[in-house]
Amino acid sequence: MKIGINAATFLKEKPEKRIELGKEAGFDGIEILAYPEELTQEKRASMKNLLEKIGLETMMIGCGPPMALSGGKLCLESPDESIRKSTVDYVKACADWANDFGTDKVYVVTPTSKNDVNDHSKSLEILYNSLNEACEYAKSSGVKICLENSPGKIVSEASQLNQVIRDFNIENLGALIDVGHLNMTNEDPTTAIMNTEKLYHVHFDNNDGKNDLHTPLDVGTMPLDNLEKAIKALKLKKYDGYYSLELLNLQNPIKTLKDNIQILKEIYNRV
Ligand SMILES: [Mn+2]
Questions:
Q1: How far away, in angstroms, is 151 Cα from ligand 1 center?
Q2: Distance between CA 25 and CA 256 in Å, rounded?
Q3: Using one digit for the tens of pLDDT, what is the confidence trace for 182-218?
């Protein structure tokens, strides 16, 4: 079992500091945040050196947080063609960064709220065009793109995510299932994971069932029982990727992260 951290936990720190803290908390791998201003050629070189020096693997390049927090400026399903196009270029650049960091994965989200679109199928058509283009580019260097289930957004439930990936039928496009998000869409973790045909990555977090809080695994309305179901399903599926923790706003991050690594390991060894 390999356990990783989404660098979003240390969003407020400098990129190098996020890496050091991830190592200090005891992780095997890290999801690098894809902020263009943080990933200049020099910055990438220094981050790679640091990762190598301390022995932390890059799990993937994370476009999720930058997209979710961009206020609509980074959006693959945008009806604004110039935004759509620049976002496709951004994801292509992330595929290059993935290569640079020695990982074969990039993850993206759909930041558009379901309630903000009149024509849902039109949004999905735009999303298809964008992902098709970005995936085609990424494929040439062996990079896969993961789309995440995002509650309340145009790709909300895991069941819908699975359907979208099936319909799009793009070779190197697969799913990132966020187990905490399943708690918000009231989906059973066993069903969600077992039914996901192309499962590329998983995030673990908890919440109050209504807000995407990313609280520690033992804080929130998702019972540990559901976490056990998710991990059992992953083992049954012979999922061999990272188990990635995505926690936000931690008061005592290193201790909390270490505790959460133990929770994952304990369940993994038991179920
Ligand atoms: Mn997530």
A1: 10
A2: 9
A3: 999 999 999 999 999 999 999 999 999 999 999 999 9
Dihedral sign (CA 223, 207, 67, 164): positive
Which domain range does residue 265 map to? Answer: 2-270
- Integer Cα distance of 12 and 17 in angstroms: 10
Helix pair 253-270, 224-236: axis angle to 10 deg = 60
Q: From residue 105, give the alpha-carbon distance in Å to each of 145, 180, 188, 233.
A: 6, 21, 26, 22
CATH number of the domain where residue 249 is located: 3.20.20.150
Q: Which residues pair with 29 in a beta bridge?
A: 4, 57
Separation of 178 CA from ligand 1 center, angstroms? 5
Instruction: Return the structure tokens found at 61.
Output: 């390049």
3-class SS at 223? coil
Distance CA 94, CA 63 (A): 8
What is the pTM for the complete model shown?
0.97
From the CA of 165, how far away is ligand 1's center (Å)? 17
Question: Structural domain tally of the chain?
Answer: 1
